[in-house]
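Title: Comparing notes on inverse folding

I've been comparing how different people in this forum approach sequence design from structure. To keep things fair, I'm posting one structure and asking everyone to reply with a full sequence. Here's the target:
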């Protein structure tokens, strides 16, 4: 038996080896620590003047950096030392104020030719490279107030339909308070509300005016509204994270009214903060006449005027939006194509049917946070986040015909239209959220974890290499070469697939190192048995690989099944372990069986040798 591979097999092995080294090599280029700056609004321009101001603030603080770069939408400053990141962020934020988002980032240094081939370094999890950690607080009081506003309109409508006369109805201290002319009307109103609006409970208080009706949401209804608000916001945040394409994110509830968002391995932390942290919604309102309604400024006043007055009553909100896509109109201007649900379509049609010729305004509502500067008792500058609401009109157009489920809005910049469509597509938030804590899981902690992980892989690899050399001598060299190539292929596939490496993933690599030589142990032991039975050297090699293959295949398939189950039912860290283990199993099958046999064939195959170094 010559033990020779045909030419195509040898070429295949060489191609796989080349693939491994090419796509694993981006990991040799560590990213630069950087600070990224962008505007709170996607329409803000980050130009050379902003860059000059940022560089001036860093120079005054004595922070060493590389030349900054800007593309008009964001600015990136590369730092010379990762320990300067947090200090640089504080300096830039204090200099630029709350109109800008300042975030920590890692700027890639991968050569252009590798990027052109699709080569990128592995994404590292939050425990290795750090990442963005948000703690958001949901304004549950706002959710209850929104429900009460809706119930207030329902109460008025029900009373008018039953011709129950009242003087006034308004919201006061999370209650609906109504005034009537006589006690008979109060009794009729109570009976009607108990029958049709069961979530509202009439309140009786000592000394209460008998002509006053006080309605309050029941405790069960309040808890249900708060719980639904948290759940809807969780769903919306998860959709936004999916739109960002973040690997292995964590979005979970914490306590009664808080949500934790962790985004490991993000490449654009400023963009993530803008999308995750922004609470935006739309309200469609008809333009008011006279002094009725509320006055709002235009988001972009060009050609529109400084402000306009809109009715307080809302036609529809962003909650009625089922789909939103950014595109361009026939004149090449950005627009957002909106599709409504059945209820929203009916409400829009009903409102516009009798108001053709009137103007319909699109009110863009953002719940934002600004930084207020103050000096503490030690004389140090303190930046305190203060939430606020910003409302502006983005479109005010004349209703030409009755509108339905599908229509479009204009008046936005291209980036704003993309952001707005993403936020609406991800789902409306049931209540505003504010960032109460934001931090980067630190570069130093990640570096320590990486160092310990690399050390564990190196120690495990060294022990395995030593064992194979001592026990199998020359054939141990073949196994060690294949084992090293297995690690290269594992890193290459994880980089190419965009898999995220975490501490459990490193544990999977260590386990793969130990398991990868199992196949070679079986093969080499079988070759020894064949030699002991009196078979020829070439025949023993052939029989060792052929007869051990079934056992190797069975063992690896069962492990792969377990890894698949871990991936399907596990959480983020467990999934990271399962992904690393699965890829390691597949690559070790190739290197342990195909590659080592190729090496054996190259050195021993077809030769008349007397002794085998095994």
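Reply #1:
Here's my take.
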């Amino acid at each position: 038996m010559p033990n020779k591979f045909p030419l195509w097999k040898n070429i295949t092995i060489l191609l796989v080896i080349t693939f491994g080294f090419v796509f694993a090599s981006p990991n040799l280029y560590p990213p630069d620590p950087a600070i990224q700056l962008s505007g709170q609004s996607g329409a803000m321009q980050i130009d050379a003047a902003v860059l000059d101001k940022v560089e001036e603030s860093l120079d005054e603080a004595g922070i060493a950096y590389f030349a900054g770069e800007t593309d008009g939408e964001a600015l990136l400053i590369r730092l010379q030392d990762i320990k300067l990141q947090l200090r640089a962020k504080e300096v830039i934020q204090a200099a630029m104020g709350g109109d800008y988002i300042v975030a920590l980032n890692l700027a890639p240094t991968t050569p252009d030719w590798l990027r052109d081939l699709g080569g990128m370094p592995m994404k590292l999890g939050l425990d290795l490279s750090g990442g963005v950690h948000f703690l958001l607080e949901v304004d549950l009081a706002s959710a209850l107030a929104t429900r009460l506003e809706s119930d207030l309109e329902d109460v008025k409508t029900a009373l008018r339909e039953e011709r129950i006369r009242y003087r006034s109805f308004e919201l006061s201290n999370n209650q609906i308070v109504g005034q009537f002319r006589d006690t008979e009307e109060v009794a009729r109103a109570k009976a009607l509300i108990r029958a049709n609006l069961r979530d509202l409970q009439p309140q009786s208080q000592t000394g209460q005016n008998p002509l006053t009706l006080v309605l309050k949401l029941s405790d069960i209804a309040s808890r249900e509204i708060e719980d639904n608000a948290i759940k809807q916001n969780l769903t919306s945040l998860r959709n936004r994270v999916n739109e960002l394409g973040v690997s292995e994110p964590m979005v979970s509830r914490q306590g009664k009214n808080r949500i934790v968002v962790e985004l490991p391995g993000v490449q654009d932390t400023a963009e993530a903060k803008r999308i995750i942290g922004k609470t935006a919604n739309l309200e469609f309102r008809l333009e008011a006449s006279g002094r009725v309604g509320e006055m709002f400024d235009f988001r972009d006043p060009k050609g529109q005027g400084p402000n306009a007055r809109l009715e307080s009553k809302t036609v529809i909100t962003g909650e009625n939006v089922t789909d939103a896509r950014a595109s361009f109109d026939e004149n090449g201007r950005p627009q957002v194509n909106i599709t409504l649900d059945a209820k929203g379509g009916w409400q829009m049609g009903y409102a516009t049917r009798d108001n053709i010729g009137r103007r319909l305004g699109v009110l863009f509502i953002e719940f934002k946070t600004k930084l207020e500067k103050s000096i503490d008792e030690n004389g140090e500058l303190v930046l305190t986040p203060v939430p606020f609401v910003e409302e502006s009109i983005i479109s005010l157009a004349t209703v030409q015909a009755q509108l339905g489920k599908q229509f479009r809005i204009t008046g936005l910049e291209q980036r704003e239209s993309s952001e707005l469509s993403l936020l609406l597509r991800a789902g409306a938030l049931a209540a505003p959220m504010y960032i109460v804590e934001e931090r980067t899981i630190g570069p130093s902690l990640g570096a320590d974890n990486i160092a310990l992980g690399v050390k564990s892989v190196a120690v495990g690899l060294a022990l395995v290499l030593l064992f194979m050399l001592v026990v199998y001598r020359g054939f141990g060299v073949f196994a060690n070469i294949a084992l090293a190539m297995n690690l290269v292929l594992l890193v290459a596939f994880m980089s190419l697939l965009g898999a995220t490496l975490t501490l459990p993933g490193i544990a999977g690599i260590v386990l793969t190192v130990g398991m990868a030589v199992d196949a070679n142990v079986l093969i080499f032991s079988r070759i020894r048995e064949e030699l002991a039975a009196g078979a020829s050297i070439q025949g023993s090699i052939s029989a060792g690989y052929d007869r051990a293959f079934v056992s190797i295949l069975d063992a690896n398939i069962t492990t792969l099944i377990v890894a698949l189950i871990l991936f399907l039912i596990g959480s983020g860290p467990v999934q990271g372990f399962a992904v690393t283990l699965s890829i390691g199993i597949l690559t070790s099958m190739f290197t342990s069986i195909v590659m080592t046999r190729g090496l054996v064939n190259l050195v021993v195959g077809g030769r008349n040798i007397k002794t085998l170094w095994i």
